[in-house]
Amino acid sequence: MEPTGKVLMINYEKCTGCRLCELVCSVMHEGVSNPSRSRIKIIKWESEGLYIPMSCQQCEDAPCVNVCPVKAVSRDETLGRVVVDYDVCIGCRACVSACPFGAMGFDVIGRKVIKCDLCDGDPQCVRFCEIHALEYVDADRVSVLKTRDAAQRLSVAEKEGAVLLAQA
Amino acid sequence: MALNKKIAYIDLSTGKIETKPIPLEVRKRFLGGRGLDAYLLYNHTDKGVDPLSPKNTLLVSAGILGATLASATARTHIMAKSPLTNLLGSSNMGGFFAPELRWAGFDHLVIKGKAEKPVYLWIHNGEIEIRDASNLWGKTTTETQWAIREELNDDDVKCAVIGPAGENLVTFASVMTGIKDSAGRSGMGCIFGSKNLKAIAARGTMDIKIAYPEDALEYNRRFITQIVSSKVNQTQGTLGTPFIWGATNSWGGIRTRNFQYNQCEYADDIEPERIDEICTETMGPYHMAGCFGCQVHCRAQYKIPSGPYAGKYDEGPEYTSQGAFGGEPDCKSAVTVLTGNHLVDQYGVDNLEIGSIISWAMELYEEGILTSKDTDGLDLKFGNDEALLEMIRRICFRDGWLANTLADGGIQASEKIGKNSFGYLIHVKGMSNLHSDERATPALALGIATGSRGSDHLRSRPAIDLYHLPEEVLRKVYSNPVAYDGPLSSEHTSYVGKAWQVFWQELCYMGVDCLGICKYHTTFLGATLPNFEDWSKVLYYNTGLEMSPRDIWDVADRCYNIERLFNMREGLTRDDPKKGDTLNHRYFDEPCRRGAPDVIGAKIDRKKFKKMIDEYYEHHGWDENGVPTAETLKRLGLDKEPSHLV
After folding, report:
1. What burial class does residue A148 get, using C-beta atoms within 10 Å of its C-beta: 0-12 exposed, 13-18 middle, 19+ buried?
2. ipTM of the complex
3. What domains does chain B contain, in order, with CATH numbers?
4. Residues of A at the B interface (Cβ-Cβ below 8 Å)?
5. Is the pTM of this model over 0.90?
6. Please, which residues bridge with residue B9 across strands?
7. Which residues of B touch A130 (CB under 8 A)?
8. Could you give all domains of chain A from N- to C-terminal order, each with its CATH number?
């Protein structure tokens, strides 16, 4: 299988904070509704109306891979993801401590570390997010889309600047 | 399984807490949420109980599908005998509280007694603790929630709280969660206050097992497509509920200046597009937020752009705040609407009721029934934005004679004020009418007159009646899951078949309220949205409970009858102007003065209205006085109530 090179892209400002992604993630992986067992989590600052989805970044040089004492965590280049081999994992939680994003979680009921596995190439959180705060795209698209947005802001700023200059 | 969540009996007087499972038999008869709450209220209160006494029973619940994949399963339901109407009190709210309650192990809380000093309940993974809330008393709704999170050192705790209005026993105080989600109607916050209960905090990491995960996921995905493809929900998702206000006002369905007009003129500043502009300016282009699991995201975020509260963050304003602080008092400024919305959210009071009651007082002031002596010098005339905002504060803190009087609710206030003030009160059963004007729409008028919690649009409103849908479409909607071959009319000014539509909608809304689903996900504003047939499937996929669409219809019928029995026990009689299935005389006597050609001049015809009520009773299986017949009760298995199954 050819490597997909696809990544989970999070458009932070679009998130409505509904947490359906947490629900479908826990149902998909564990057959239960339970956000504490979800691989994705919406972090909220409710008093400011700010909602930020947080999930695994599938790092190229991943701290969780590097820190694992039994080499249970590795990169799967086919899907561009970091995976846990539960036959090898001893549940020491070193990866939970090492992850700079808090994306490696610990499932208190299943008694195991949990992280996003991109649903083997069909991320359900993306499939259910109607507002497209979550998208599954080729890695290069992430920067291109952001560049386009930034370019548009610059273009608007330039036009407004020209108007101000003309009025001066 | 999804049905193992428990019921907790909490006595705040003694501190005794008991938890029990909910028998399957009870689930099949009442499902959960509002329906089971109604059963519990009927079984756990005595006839004629004083709403503010420790003997009133307070119910807080999640729907049977709460936090599952049935879409928008966010609703929390709260019930007790109402301090506003002295009849059934019932209100529900969105947000994230009910799902958290379920993950913490509970579906229903039965709260009795009264704590000696302010307390809050802490519900965590099957455990319930009564904790001291002395340091929370006096705090606003958001201050309370953030303080509880700090105390428990957990940012994921979700709370249902009251603000100062509930503490001060304002009879229409709300229970709130988050920034703006409110169980506002019928004064459930006042019941919290009367029990010295400041808040209920929940947090859980317990499973809700989904019976058939794959089917549940696939059906939910289908549901989402069905729900977001509805034009009405797409508009809700961009403009929020204000769009309904704009549309309704355009044809003349918004009551203005209490009940003097049916359209708010020159109101550009409070039109939905203007509100949206402010949201965009203050919160950016993506300013819509959603309740748990909902893809409609009808809730706008904003900051107040100017005035004494400039920069304050809030959410909404909903259709009701536009009406309550815009149309009714004739204050046509966006900043006033946004500020009023912020104040009611912070103080914890029903926006609809407080706006209506202030508009009523404004009309009484204009008529000379109230004077500046009564208002402590406040110039309480229509269109006085400052007076409106000041009255909101005064009522929530019972500051001054008039505010203290109004805080007791319309009927009690009218008895104190006297001088025919009651004749101006736009209410049913003591609860203020929505700021819509129903004189041109008999179906809507019947709905508010008969609602089991007093005047209300979320009990039975056949809103699709306004779309002039072809008769065959109406028939498709209204002939399921029970056959109906009686007359139906596409004309909104007609009285034909409307009783059936109201009856059908009552059971439809009871259905979603038992399941814990939002009304925007059923046949309320859109004719293509899910109802009984889909519920039967999502109920099975998520919980494993096998119930046909007809079974769910029967549950709704049973639960609505329990509510009726409760109201009859508390003294409802058909034509009682204070407690009956009636409308203010102005609906029959004063024609609409503004609006579209088929609205202007419209009023409700007394004789036809009476006939509509007769028909409506007949559909329900009630006698000509609105009393459920012995045969009806037997059919629904309610002939031995109270039966004390739980």
Report:
1. exposed
2. 0.95
3. 6-203 (3.60.9.10), 255-432 (1.10.569.10), 442-635 (1.10.599.10)
4. 13-14, 16-20, 23-24, 27-28, 30-37, 44, 46-49, 51, 108-109, 124, 127-128, 130-131
5. yes
6. B18, B110
7. 224, 228, 295
8. 6-140 (3.30.70.20)
